[in-house]
Amino acid sequence: MTTTQTLALTIQSALQDGTERLMAVTDTPQLEAQLLLGHVLDQSRTWLLTWADKTLDLDDYEIFSALINRRADGEPLPYILGSWEFFGINFVVSPATLIPRPETELLVEAALEYISQQQRDVAVVDVGTGTGCIGLSIASHAANTRITLVDCSVDALEVAEENARHLNKFVALRQNDLLEGLGQFDLICSNPPYIAPCDMEGLDVADFEPHLALDGGASDGMEVITRLLRQVKTHLNPGGMFLMEFGADQGAAVHTLATETFPAASVEIVSDYAGLDRLLRVCLP
Ligand SMILES: C[S@@+](CC[C@H](N)C(=O)[O-])C[C@H]1O[C@@H](n2cnc3c(N)ncnc32)[C@H](O)[C@@H]1O
């Protein structure tokens, strides 16, 4: 009798075991156990539930168990799965990239609204692109665009390039410090790092997500934002739009900085679906 037969481990019992081991670390242990086992078996959650009584190979169980251990140690689920959904698209993620957040979809919606009102090709840049989720979501929903993805991290750009390839989108990729030395754009999008250094400690995500993607530098996390705003002034075409995500407690400071930098522009702070200040929209005359 083989070990597999001795254990007679089923999909259902593996899921039960995984769920129990994740209870201390997440509010959705059952869902996450299903996603992890589905990832190992390359099957959907529906398939797992349909074939719950099927015997699981010991090798598959051991791989699943190792993934459960990683999740139980606090590693975010997207890094274990290697991909995460944003704006209805599956993006490859790696520890070199921020995990795309649902609130960033607000920026993509605002970008698509602007592009839909233009009668010509729109030159778009996504500054601090990470996985490429902002620029590539725009590219996937608007044909009349020329997209540039910028990041200072080569490792992040490699992930963005992989996502562009999967989505079959032709985009320019630039390793660069923000907009320094780049050309002119009609639409500048960015979700820059904006967390204050003093808030980095004790932040759970900072144990796993890259500090480069989170730490906004001095001035309460506004250093990168301030530099970017100044650069936008010389890189945004007349009639252009600048969209930038920021931290929920930075709305007043971002608004003041933007009105000082763009006295002739329309400057607006947009709230996210949780009612928190989230997005800066600057429209040049
Ligand atoms: C908050 S993450 C955003 C990632 C992605 N756009 C998203 O929304 O999920 C910020 C990104 O900016 C990049 N970054 C940080 N400083 C930068 C700089 N000076 N120039 C270019 N990119 C920078 C980081 O590597 C990181 O990928």
Features:
Helicase, Ruva Protein, domain 3; Rossmann fold; alpha/beta; binds S-adenosylmethionine; disordered N terminus; two-stranded antiparallel ribbon; elongated; 45% helix; 285 residues; 2 domains; 9 strands; seven-stranded mixed sheet; 14 helices; single chain
Mean pLDDT equals 95
Number of domains: 2
Query: CATH topology of the largest domain, what is it called?
Result: Rossmann fold
Q: Unreliable stretches, pLDDT < 50, 5 or more residues?
A: 1-5
- Please report the distance between the alpha carbons of the first and last residues: 78 Å
**CATH architecture classification of the largest domain:** 3-Layer(aba) Sandwich
The order of strands across the largest sheet is: 5-4-3-6-7-9-8
Summarize the helix and strand pattern as letters. HHHHHHEEHEHEHEEHHHHEHEE
CATH class categorisation of the largest domain: Alpha Beta
Largest sheet: 7 strands, mixed
Structural class: alpha/beta
Describe the overall structure.
The protein has 285 residues and is α/β, with parallel strands linked by helices. Strands 5-4-3-6-7-9-8 form a seven-stranded mixed beta sheet, sandwiched between helices. The chain has a two-stranded antiparallel ribbon with strand order 1-2. Helix 2 (11-22) runs parallel beside helix 5, helix 7 packs parallel to helix 8 (133-141) and helix 13 runs parallel beside helix 14 (251-261). Helix content is 45%, strand content 19%. Mean pLDDT is 95; it is low at 1-5. The protein has 14 helices and nine strands. It has two domains: 3-74, Orthogonal Bundle (Helicase, Ruva Protein, domain 3), CATH 1.10.8.10; 95-283, Vaccinia Virus protein VP39 (Rossmann fold, 3-Layer(aba) Sandwich). Strand 1 (83-86) and strand 2 (89-92) form a beta hairpin. The relative contact order is 0.10. Residues 98, 100, 104, 128-131, 133-134, 150-153, 156, 177-178, 191-193, 212-213, 224 line the site of S-adenosylmethionine (SAM).
